[in-house]
Specification:
407 residues; alpha+beta; 12-stranded mixed β-sheet; 13 helices; 12 strands
Length: 407
Amino acid sequence: MNVLAILKDFTRRCKSMFENTTTTMSKRFLNWLILTIRTVALIPGKINFTRLSRYGGRTAKTFSSNFKTPVDWLGINERLARESLGDGDIAIAIDPSFISKAGKLTYGIGRFWSGVAQRVKRGLEIMAIGAISLSKHSCVMLGAVQSPDFKTLESEKDMSMLEWYISLVRDKAKELLTLSDILVADAFFTKYDFVSEVVAMGFRFVGRLRADSYLRYLAAPDTSAPRKRGRKKKYGEKVDFSSLDMSVFSSFMYKDAKGNESLCHTAVVHSRALKRNIRIVVCPVENGEPLLYFSTDVDMEPSRIIGFYRTRFQIEFGIRDAKQFTGLQSQQTRDKDRLDFAFNLSFTALNVCKEVIRKDYPDLTIPQFKRLMFESYLASTIISTYGKSPHLKIIQKINHRLALLAA
């Protein structure tokens, strides 16, 4: 492995990935964006304007001003998703994520739910959007949109947080539907307002229900009974998950990605909360409440319903990796536009790193690949500074550069 060639190979891969998404970018800005993605990929630890300047060869002011430039991140990452995931079973996953941030003047700062801490904390929130593949069991991050704080929503927009989530999906629906018409989200979004709106947009929604959800069997028509006046009965008894009516439910064996098999049951029932018929999949849990997955598409295969929902967790792994390796949680700005750029840059850099790893370094993990990028940068920096005639002043210059990098 030629360590010195790794940075050049990474840059070449970036250019090939962006070749069909440059219609709204100048060549100068595209070259800067590729340089920035490469810099994010090699920086160890915290990523901010100061460290981007130190490793990227541009001033912090240059990075700060370019972070105000609007970029079609969804279009860029959608192309990466098509190249990486192929044309298999793809769904759109959404997941709100808490971002730690101190201070009082940062746009959108407020109190949001943190899943890691399991409590409300002060900071920022983003809505992460990803494309998940059922066959490859992976996720490509499509982008992020920052959530306004509750006071801003109530005073300026006159809407709840759930209504804002609906408006966000509506704004992105046209682009997302070109990739997939299946939308997956966790149990928080299993609410009538959200589900009915996204279905009206053209999505098929896959989610999860609480174990105490009120579901009813569909009334079976009795052809032998005499005809009576009035509306026919539409629903039967309430579904008792401890004693399923196996004349309605059908059983099947579900095999997960690890090869583990479990007996599950499925049927078309009516949800009183969602006010619609749904395809429900019941997965019993030993010594616990059963897991209830559902789809608004009653004709969807039950194994795909389970698969799509469980693959949804890949977006959470993407958020975790972006926080650990590409600076999702270390942005050095308070401006709305720069924050948006920083969040989406982090996800795009993660996608590019994963794609380069998939094609060129399949045996490496993300931290190993970042270490390799840093070593390549370190070696090329030493050699370019060292030159062909080493002497004391050059050695001192090298020490000074390395001291700056280690700071």
